[in-house]
Amino acid sequence: MTDVSQLKDSYPHVIVGGGEAADAAVRAILDAAPETEVLVVNGSQHPPVGRPALSKTLWMDPDKELTDVYLGTERTGATVVNDAHATALDPERHTVTVEGREISYGRLLLATGSRARRLPDQPESPRVLTLRETEDFVALRPLISEGTEVAVVGGGYIGSELAAGLSNVGARVTLCFPDEKLLAHMLPDSIATHVSEVYGGKGITLESGFRAGSVDVADPERPTVVAEDGRKVIADVVVLALGADPAVELAEDAGLATAEGGVRVDATMATSAVDVWAAGDIAAFPDALFGRRRVEHVVNAGGTGKTAGANMAGAHTEYTDTPMFFSDLFDDGYEAVGLLDTGLETREFWNDDHTAAVIYYLDGHEVRGVLNWNTWDSVGTALETIADSQAGKIGPADLEGRITPGA
Protein backbone atom coordinates (compact mmCIF):
# COMPACT_ATOMS: atom_id res chain seq x y z
CA MET A 1 0.00 0.00 0.00
CA THR A 2 1.05 3.57 -0.63
CA ASP A 3 2.51 5.56 2.24
CA VAL A 4 1.79 9.27 2.73
CA SER A 5 5.48 10.03 2.23
CA GLN A 6 5.22 8.52 -1.27
CA LEU A 7 2.42 10.79 -2.42
CA LYS A 8 2.82 13.37 -5.12
CA ASP A 9 2.32 17.07 -4.46
CA SER A 10 -0.67 17.25 -6.79
CA TYR A 11 -3.42 15.01 -8.17
CA PRO A 12 -6.16 15.72 -10.73
CA HIS A 13 -8.69 13.95 -8.50
CA VAL A 14 -8.66 13.47 -4.74
CA ILE A 15 -11.25 11.52 -2.78
CA VAL A 16 -11.44 11.84 0.99
CA GLY A 17 -13.05 8.67 2.35
CA GLY A 18 -12.77 4.93 1.86
CA GLY A 19 -16.29 3.52 1.72
CA GLU A 20 -18.86 2.60 -0.90
CA ALA A 21 -19.29 6.18 -2.13
CA ALA A 22 -15.55 6.64 -2.58
CA ASP A 23 -15.19 3.33 -4.41
CA ALA A 24 -18.09 4.12 -6.77
CA ALA A 25 -16.60 7.54 -7.51
CA VAL A 26 -13.18 6.07 -8.29
CA ARG A 27 -14.67 3.63 -10.76
CA ALA A 28 -16.78 6.31 -12.45
CA ILE A 29 -13.78 8.62 -12.83
CA LEU A 30 -11.53 5.92 -14.26
CA ASP A 31 -14.25 4.58 -16.54
CA ALA A 32 -14.48 8.03 -18.12
CA ALA A 33 -10.78 8.90 -17.98
CA PRO A 34 -8.65 5.74 -17.62
CA GLU A 35 -5.36 7.62 -17.81
CA THR A 36 -6.09 10.13 -15.06
CA GLU A 37 -4.73 9.90 -11.51
CA VAL A 38 -6.99 9.46 -8.49
CA LEU A 39 -5.85 9.68 -4.89
CA VAL A 40 -8.03 8.04 -2.22
CA VAL A 41 -7.41 9.17 1.36
CA ASN A 42 -8.77 6.28 3.43
CA GLY A 43 -8.93 6.83 7.20
CA SER A 44 -9.10 3.11 7.98
CA GLN A 45 -6.02 0.98 8.53
CA HIS A 46 -7.68 -1.59 6.27
CA PRO A 47 -8.44 -1.37 2.55
CA PRO A 48 -11.88 -0.02 1.59
CA VAL A 49 -14.53 -2.52 2.61
CA GLY A 50 -18.21 -3.16 1.95
CA ARG A 51 -19.47 -2.00 5.34
CA PRO A 52 -22.85 -3.81 5.32
CA ALA A 53 -20.93 -7.07 5.55
CA LEU A 54 -19.58 -6.06 8.96
CA SER A 55 -23.00 -6.53 10.53
CA LYS A 56 -24.40 -9.15 8.16
CA THR A 57 -22.40 -11.39 5.82
CA LEU A 58 -19.34 -11.91 8.02
CA TRP A 59 -21.56 -13.27 10.81
CA MET A 60 -24.13 -15.14 8.73
CA ASP A 61 -21.79 -16.89 6.26
CA PRO A 62 -19.11 -18.99 7.97
CA ASP A 63 -17.10 -19.22 4.76
CA LYS A 64 -16.63 -15.46 4.42
CA GLU A 65 -13.48 -13.71 5.61
CA LEU A 66 -12.82 -10.00 5.93
CA THR A 67 -10.67 -10.05 2.80
CA ASP A 68 -13.67 -11.39 0.86
CA VAL A 69 -15.59 -8.14 1.39
CA TYR A 70 -12.84 -5.71 0.45
CA LEU A 71 -14.10 -3.48 -2.36
CA GLY A 72 -10.90 -3.71 -4.37
CA THR A 73 -10.54 0.05 -4.78
CA GLU A 74 -6.76 -0.30 -4.79
CA ARG A 75 -6.98 -2.61 -7.82
CA THR A 76 -8.68 0.01 -10.01
CA GLY A 77 -5.47 1.90 -10.66
CA ALA A 78 -6.21 4.58 -8.07
CA THR A 79 -3.60 5.47 -5.46
CA VAL A 80 -5.07 4.41 -2.11
CA VAL A 81 -3.38 5.53 1.10
CA ASN A 82 -4.76 3.81 4.20
CA ASP A 83 -4.68 5.01 7.80
CA ALA A 84 -4.45 8.59 6.52
CA HIS A 85 -6.61 11.52 7.55
CA ALA A 86 -7.40 14.78 5.85
CA THR A 87 -7.30 17.52 8.47
CA ALA A 88 -7.83 20.69 6.43
CA LEU A 89 -9.40 21.70 3.13
CA ASP A 90 -8.77 25.02 1.38
CA PRO A 91 -11.19 25.29 -1.57
CA GLU A 92 -9.78 28.63 -2.73
CA ARG A 93 -6.24 27.29 -3.01
CA HIS A 94 -7.43 23.84 -4.10
CA THR A 95 -5.43 22.09 -1.40
CA VAL A 96 -6.12 19.39 1.14
CA THR A 97 -3.86 18.60 4.10
CA VAL A 98 -3.23 14.89 4.63
CA GLU A 99 -1.31 13.87 7.74
CA GLY A 100 0.38 17.27 7.82
CA ARG A 101 1.19 17.28 4.13
CA GLU A 102 -0.47 19.78 1.79
CA ILE A 103 -1.60 18.27 -1.52
CA SER A 104 -3.05 20.19 -4.45
CA TYR A 105 -6.08 18.86 -6.29
CA GLY A 106 -7.93 19.61 -9.47
CA ARG A 107 -11.23 18.22 -8.24
CA LEU A 108 -12.07 16.75 -4.87
CA LEU A 109 -14.80 14.54 -3.42
CA LEU A 110 -15.78 14.46 0.23
CA ALA A 111 -17.05 10.96 1.08
CA THR A 112 -16.24 11.01 4.78
CA GLY A 113 -19.27 8.97 5.85
CA SER A 114 -20.54 8.80 9.42
CA ARG A 115 -19.16 7.87 12.79
CA ALA A 116 -20.86 5.77 15.44
CA ARG A 117 -22.54 7.61 18.27
CA ARG A 118 -21.26 7.11 21.78
CA LEU A 119 -22.82 7.49 25.18
CA PRO A 120 -21.93 10.58 27.22
CA ASP A 121 -18.77 9.88 29.24
CA GLN A 122 -18.51 6.45 27.65
CA PRO A 123 -15.56 4.60 29.22
CA GLU A 124 -12.72 3.25 27.12
CA SER A 125 -12.74 -0.53 27.29
CA PRO A 126 -11.80 -3.31 24.87
CA ARG A 127 -15.13 -4.92 25.78
CA VAL A 128 -17.31 -1.89 25.05
CA LEU A 129 -17.46 -1.42 21.29
CA THR A 130 -19.35 0.08 18.41
CA LEU A 131 -19.65 -1.43 14.94
CA ARG A 132 -19.11 1.03 12.13
CA GLU A 133 -15.57 0.71 10.83
CA THR A 134 -13.49 -2.30 9.87
CA GLU A 135 -11.39 -1.75 12.99
CA ASP A 136 -14.55 -2.24 15.08
CA PHE A 137 -15.23 -5.62 13.48
CA VAL A 138 -11.59 -6.68 13.86
CA ALA A 139 -11.76 -5.81 17.58
CA LEU A 140 -15.13 -7.50 18.12
CA ARG A 141 -14.75 -10.78 16.24
CA PRO A 142 -12.08 -12.42 18.47
CA LEU A 143 -14.22 -11.72 21.54
CA ILE A 144 -17.15 -13.74 20.20
CA SER A 145 -17.43 -17.51 20.49
CA GLU A 146 -20.03 -20.10 21.43
CA GLY A 147 -21.76 -18.94 24.61
CA THR A 148 -20.26 -15.43 24.78
CA GLU A 149 -22.76 -13.12 26.48
CA VAL A 150 -23.23 -9.99 24.39
CA ALA A 151 -25.40 -6.98 25.10
CA VAL A 152 -26.35 -5.15 21.92
CA VAL A 153 -27.64 -1.71 22.81
CA GLY A 154 -29.95 -0.16 20.23
CA GLY A 155 -32.76 -1.73 18.25
CA GLY A 156 -32.37 0.04 14.94
CA TYR A 157 -30.89 -0.99 11.63
CA ILE A 158 -27.41 -2.08 12.77
CA GLY A 159 -28.48 -3.35 16.19
CA SER A 160 -31.14 -5.69 14.85
CA GLU A 161 -28.87 -7.05 12.12
CA LEU A 162 -25.92 -7.53 14.45
CA ALA A 163 -28.00 -9.29 17.09
CA ALA A 164 -29.10 -11.80 14.45
CA GLY A 165 -25.51 -12.27 13.27
CA LEU A 166 -24.07 -12.74 16.75
CA SER A 167 -26.78 -15.25 17.57
CA ASN A 168 -25.94 -17.12 14.38
CA VAL A 169 -22.37 -17.73 15.57
CA GLY A 170 -23.51 -18.98 18.97
CA ALA A 171 -23.36 -15.90 21.16
CA ARG A 172 -25.96 -15.43 23.88
CA VAL A 173 -27.41 -12.07 22.92
CA THR A 174 -29.42 -9.58 24.94
CA LEU A 175 -30.84 -6.86 22.69
CA CYS A 176 -31.63 -3.65 24.57
CA PHE A 177 -33.88 -1.17 22.76
CA PRO A 178 -36.19 1.74 23.65
CA ASP A 179 -39.40 0.62 21.89
CA GLU A 180 -42.02 -1.73 23.32
CA LYS A 181 -41.31 -4.15 20.48
CA LEU A 182 -38.27 -4.53 18.26
CA LEU A 183 -38.25 -2.01 15.38
CA ALA A 184 -41.66 -0.70 16.47
CA HIS A 185 -40.65 2.82 15.44
CA MET A 186 -40.70 1.74 11.79
CA LEU A 187 -42.65 -1.54 11.56
CA PRO A 188 -46.41 -1.79 12.20
CA ASP A 189 -47.44 -3.81 15.23
CA SER A 190 -48.28 -6.88 13.16
CA ILE A 191 -44.72 -7.15 11.85
CA ALA A 192 -42.96 -5.85 14.97
CA THR A 193 -44.73 -8.54 17.00
CA HIS A 194 -43.62 -11.20 14.52
CA VAL A 195 -40.03 -9.97 14.50
CA SER A 196 -39.91 -9.92 18.31
CA GLU A 197 -41.25 -13.50 18.39
CA VAL A 198 -38.67 -14.63 15.83
CA TYR A 199 -35.79 -13.08 17.75
CA GLY A 200 -37.04 -14.55 21.01
CA GLY A 201 -37.38 -17.92 19.33
CA LYS A 202 -33.73 -17.72 18.28
CA GLY A 203 -32.73 -17.39 21.94
CA ILE A 204 -32.20 -13.63 21.91
CA THR A 205 -33.29 -11.93 25.12
CA LEU A 206 -35.25 -8.76 24.38
CA GLU A 207 -34.98 -5.90 26.86
CA SER A 208 -37.65 -3.51 25.61
CA GLY A 209 -38.16 0.04 26.85
CA PHE A 210 -34.44 0.13 27.62
CA ARG A 211 -32.83 3.54 27.15
CA ALA A 212 -29.13 3.23 27.87
CA GLY A 213 -27.69 5.88 30.13
CA SER A 214 -24.18 4.63 30.87
CA VAL A 215 -21.80 1.69 30.86
CA ASP A 216 -20.00 0.61 34.03
CA VAL A 217 -16.63 -1.12 33.58
CA ALA A 218 -15.72 -1.52 37.26
CA ASP A 219 -15.37 -5.19 36.38
CA PRO A 220 -13.23 -4.96 33.23
CA GLU A 221 -14.21 -8.47 32.12
CA ARG A 222 -17.96 -7.99 32.62
CA PRO A 223 -19.19 -4.51 31.62
CA THR A 224 -22.64 -3.41 32.76
CA VAL A 225 -25.09 -1.38 30.71
CA VAL A 226 -27.24 0.82 32.92
CA ALA A 227 -30.59 2.08 31.66
CA GLU A 228 -32.05 5.45 32.51
CA ASP A 229 -34.65 3.66 34.65
CA GLY A 230 -31.94 1.84 36.60
CA ARG A 231 -32.14 -1.56 34.94
CA LYS A 232 -28.80 -3.27 34.40
CA VAL A 233 -27.56 -5.78 31.83
CA ILE A 234 -24.23 -7.48 32.51
CA ALA A 235 -22.35 -9.17 29.67
CA ASP A 236 -18.95 -10.30 28.46
CA VAL A 237 -19.12 -7.75 25.63
CA VAL A 238 -21.22 -4.66 25.03
CA VAL A 239 -21.82 -3.38 21.50
CA LEU A 240 -23.40 0.06 21.22
CA ALA A 241 -25.55 0.47 18.12
CA LEU A 242 -26.93 3.93 18.81
CA GLY A 243 -26.92 5.30 15.29
CA ALA A 244 -24.36 7.52 13.60
CA ASP A 245 -23.53 11.16 12.97
CA PRO A 246 -22.26 12.47 9.61
CA ALA A 247 -18.56 13.36 9.58
CA VAL A 248 -18.87 16.92 8.32
CA GLU A 249 -16.14 18.70 10.28
CA LEU A 250 -13.74 18.97 7.35
CA ALA A 251 -16.46 20.51 5.18
CA GLU A 252 -17.69 22.86 7.89
CA ASP A 253 -14.20 24.10 8.70
CA ALA A 254 -13.71 24.82 4.99
CA GLY A 255 -16.85 26.95 4.94
CA LEU A 256 -18.99 24.68 2.75
CA ALA A 257 -22.76 25.17 2.90
CA THR A 258 -24.59 22.63 5.05
CA ALA A 259 -28.15 21.33 5.31
CA GLU A 260 -30.00 18.51 7.09
CA GLY A 261 -26.94 17.92 9.25
CA GLY A 262 -24.79 17.22 6.19
CA VAL A 263 -23.09 18.94 3.26
CA ARG A 264 -25.48 20.70 0.92
CA VAL A 265 -25.13 19.52 -2.70
CA ASP A 266 -27.03 20.06 -5.91
CA ALA A 267 -28.28 17.23 -8.11
CA THR A 268 -24.80 16.76 -9.59
CA MET A 269 -23.39 16.28 -6.05
CA ALA A 270 -21.50 19.58 -6.33
CA THR A 271 -21.06 21.52 -3.08
CA SER A 272 -21.00 25.28 -2.62
CA ALA A 273 -17.23 25.25 -3.27
CA VAL A 274 -15.87 25.17 -6.80
CA ASP A 275 -14.47 21.76 -7.79
CA VAL A 276 -15.63 20.09 -4.58
CA TRP A 277 -18.30 17.38 -4.54
CA ALA A 278 -19.82 15.36 -1.69
CA ALA A 279 -21.43 11.91 -1.68
CA GLY A 280 -22.68 9.20 0.64
CA ASP A 281 -23.86 9.71 4.20
CA ILE A 282 -22.84 13.36 4.38
CA ALA A 283 -24.55 14.52 1.17
CA ALA A 284 -27.78 16.48 1.67
CA PHE A 285 -29.18 16.12 -1.84
CA PRO A 286 -32.42 17.23 -3.53
CA ASP A 287 -34.71 14.19 -3.66
CA ALA A 288 -37.39 14.63 -6.31
CA LEU A 289 -40.03 12.97 -4.13
CA PHE A 290 -39.08 14.03 -0.61
CA GLY A 291 -37.07 17.22 -0.93
CA ARG A 292 -33.60 17.79 0.43
CA ARG A 293 -32.45 15.02 2.73
CA ARG A 294 -29.62 12.71 3.71
CA VAL A 295 -29.78 8.92 3.39
CA GLU A 296 -27.41 6.62 5.26
CA HIS A 297 -27.50 3.44 3.21
CA VAL A 298 -25.21 1.59 0.85
CA VAL A 299 -27.53 2.04 -2.14
CA ASN A 300 -27.45 5.80 -1.78
CA ALA A 301 -23.68 5.78 -1.19
CA GLY A 302 -23.10 3.94 -4.43
CA GLY A 303 -25.47 6.09 -6.45
CA THR A 304 -24.27 9.45 -5.21
CA GLY A 305 -20.64 8.35 -5.45
CA LYS A 306 -21.07 7.24 -9.05
CA THR A 307 -22.77 10.52 -9.96
CA ALA A 308 -20.10 12.61 -8.27
CA GLY A 309 -17.29 10.65 -9.92
CA ALA A 310 -18.80 10.98 -13.38
CA ASN A 311 -19.13 14.73 -12.95
CA MET A 312 -15.61 15.06 -11.59
CA ALA A 313 -14.50 13.44 -14.85
CA GLY A 314 -16.33 16.05 -16.91
CA ALA A 315 -19.88 14.78 -17.28
CA HIS A 316 -22.97 16.71 -16.24
CA THR A 317 -25.27 14.04 -14.90
CA GLU A 318 -27.81 14.38 -12.12
CA TYR A 319 -28.70 12.06 -9.29
CA THR A 320 -32.43 11.60 -9.73
CA ASP A 321 -32.95 8.50 -7.59
CA THR A 322 -35.04 8.20 -4.48
CA PRO A 323 -32.82 5.55 -2.90
CA MET A 324 -34.27 2.36 -1.51
CA PHE A 325 -33.01 0.52 1.54
CA PHE A 326 -33.23 -3.09 2.62
CA SER A 327 -32.42 -5.50 5.39
CA ASP A 328 -32.54 -9.20 6.27
CA LEU A 329 -33.74 -10.34 9.70
CA PHE A 330 -33.13 -14.08 9.96
CA ASP A 331 -35.48 -15.63 7.37
CA ASP A 332 -37.43 -12.41 6.79
CA GLY A 333 -36.40 -9.41 4.75
CA TYR A 334 -37.67 -6.20 3.28
CA GLU A 335 -37.10 -3.53 0.67
CA ALA A 336 -38.39 -0.04 1.34
CA VAL A 337 -38.47 3.55 0.17
CA GLY A 338 -39.37 6.82 1.83
CA LEU A 339 -40.34 7.39 5.44
CA LEU A 340 -41.11 4.35 7.58
CA ASP A 341 -42.56 5.96 10.69
CA THR A 342 -45.31 4.29 12.67
CA GLY A 343 -46.35 7.72 13.88
CA LEU A 344 -47.99 7.96 10.45
CA GLU A 345 -51.16 6.14 9.44
CA THR A 346 -50.39 2.72 7.97
CA ARG A 347 -52.33 0.59 5.50
CA GLU A 348 -51.43 -3.12 5.39
CA PHE A 349 -52.02 -5.61 2.60
CA TRP A 350 -51.04 -9.25 3.22
CA ASN A 351 -50.82 -12.39 1.15
CA ASP A 352 -53.10 -15.33 1.94
CA ASP A 353 -50.76 -17.13 4.32
CA HIS A 354 -49.75 -13.92 6.08
CA THR A 355 -46.04 -14.31 5.33
CA ALA A 356 -45.62 -11.25 3.11
CA ALA A 357 -47.05 -7.77 3.10
CA VAL A 358 -47.00 -4.34 1.53
CA ILE A 359 -47.28 -1.51 4.04
CA TYR A 360 -48.06 2.08 3.06
CA TYR A 361 -47.28 4.96 5.39
CA LEU A 362 -49.63 7.90 4.88
CA ASP A 363 -49.69 11.50 5.97
CA GLY A 364 -53.29 12.39 5.28
CA HIS A 365 -53.99 11.20 1.74
CA GLU A 366 -50.33 11.23 0.71
CA VAL A 367 -48.10 8.16 0.73
CA ARG A 368 -44.80 8.97 2.42
CA GLY A 369 -43.24 5.52 2.53
CA VAL A 370 -43.65 1.94 1.34
CA LEU A 371 -42.40 -1.22 3.04
CA ASN A 372 -42.30 -4.39 0.95
CA TRP A 373 -42.09 -7.13 3.58
CA ASN A 374 -40.88 -10.43 2.09
CA THR A 375 -41.90 -8.86 -1.20
CA TRP A 376 -39.22 -8.33 -3.83
CA ASP A 377 -38.41 -6.35 -6.94
CA SER A 378 -41.29 -3.92 -6.49
CA VAL A 379 -39.41 -0.78 -5.46
CA GLY A 380 -40.08 0.82 -8.83
CA THR A 381 -43.82 0.40 -8.36
CA ALA A 382 -43.53 1.73 -4.81
CA LEU A 383 -41.84 4.87 -6.12
CA GLU A 384 -44.52 5.30 -8.78
CA THR A 385 -47.17 4.95 -6.10
CA ILE A 386 -45.59 7.68 -3.98
CA ALA A 387 -45.28 9.98 -7.00
CA ASP A 388 -48.88 9.34 -8.08
CA SER A 389 -50.06 9.98 -4.53
CA GLN A 390 -48.17 13.27 -4.32
CA ALA A 391 -49.64 14.32 -7.65
CA GLY A 392 -53.16 13.56 -6.45
CA LYS A 393 -53.67 10.85 -9.05
CA ILE A 394 -54.49 8.20 -6.46
CA GLY A 395 -55.77 8.15 -2.90
CA PRO A 396 -55.70 5.66 -0.02
CA ALA A 397 -58.59 3.70 -1.56
CA ASP A 398 -56.50 3.01 -4.66
CA LEU A 399 -53.56 1.34 -2.90
CA GLU A 400 -54.79 -2.24 -2.75
CA GLY A 401 -53.41 -4.24 -5.64
CA ARG A 402 -50.72 -1.76 -6.65
CA ILE A 403 -48.09 -4.24 -5.40
CA THR A 404 -48.79 -7.94 -4.86
CA PRO A 405 -47.52 -9.08 -1.42
CA GLY A 406 -45.01 -11.89 -1.72
CA ALA A 407 -44.40 -11.41 -5.42
TrEMBL record:
Cofactor: FAD
InterPro entries assigned: AIF_C, FAD-oxidoreductase/Apoptosis, FAD/NAD-bd_sf, FAD/NAD-binding_dom, FAD/NAD-linked_Rdtase_dimer_sf
Molecular functions (GO terms): FAD binding; NAD(P)H oxidase H2O2-forming activity; protein dimerization activity
SUPFAM superfamilies: FAD/NAD(P)-binding domain, FAD/NAD-linked reductases, dimerisation (C-terminal) domain
Superkingdom assignment: Bacteria
Reaction catalyzed: A + NADH + H(+) = AH2 + NAD(+)
UniProt keyword Cell membrane, yes or no: no
GO biological process: mitochondrial respiratory chain complex assembly; programmed cell death
Domain Mitochondrial apoptosis-inducing factor C-terminal: 308-350
Annotated GO CC locations: cytoplasm
UniProt entry keywords in alphabetical sequence: Apoptosis, FAD, Flavoprotein, NAD, Oxidoreductase, Transit peptide
Annotated Gene3D superfamilies: 3.30.390.30, FAD/NAD(P)-binding domain
Domain FAD/NAD(P)-binding: 12-305
Protein name per its UniProtKB record: Pyridine nucleotide-disulfide oxidoreductase
Organism annotation: Corynebacterium frankenforstense DSM 45800
